[in-house]
Design goal:
single chain, alpha+beta, 2,3-Dihydroxybiphenyl 1,2-Dioxygenase, domain 1, 3 helices, 8 strands, globular
């Protein structure tokens, strides 16, 4: 069984310019932001910003713009779960156990470093990350 420890974040897709979303949420609504804690090679490919709330984060991520062809990361083409679109991310007790459990249950997924992406039966992306407050040793 997968042991989800807490909600990590929820992400909303941005089909307009990310700066418009930043202006609305940060400049107009006054939402605080935090540093994006993703690997540098992914940060450069996934434009967006993280909004910080006392009980978690909401990530705003640039995805398709109207009239533009989707620029999917090559390593994501044809794989389940879409980290560049709307998704929900959970912290887990043991990321390796998640991979083992998904495999044992014939659930399609892909792993990128310490991130695992899958889809629920409706096609919604679900992300799993090792909880930094729990050692997976």
């Amino acid at each position: 069984m997968i042991k989800i420890t807490r909600l990590n974040h929820s992400a909303i897709g941005c089909r307009v310019d990310v700066e418009e979303m930043h202006r609305f949420y940060v400049d107009i609504l006054g939402v605080n932001t935090s540093e994006r804690d993703i690997p540098e090679h992914l940060a450069a490919l996934i434009p967006g910003f993280w909004m910080q709330f006392p009980n978690g984060q909401v990530h705003v991520i640039q995805c398709d713009k109207p009239g533009e062809e989707r620029k999917v990361l090559k390593e994501l083409a044809g794989k389940p779960g879409d980290p560049m679109g709307p998704h929900t991310a959970f912290y887990v007790e043991d990321i390796d156990a998640v991979e083992t459990h998904l495999t044992a249950n014939n659930i399609a997924y892909h792993r990128m470093d310490q991130f695992i992406f899958s889809s629920d039966p409706e096609g919604n992306t679900v992300e799993f990350q090792q909880d930094p407050e729990i050692s997976s040793d």
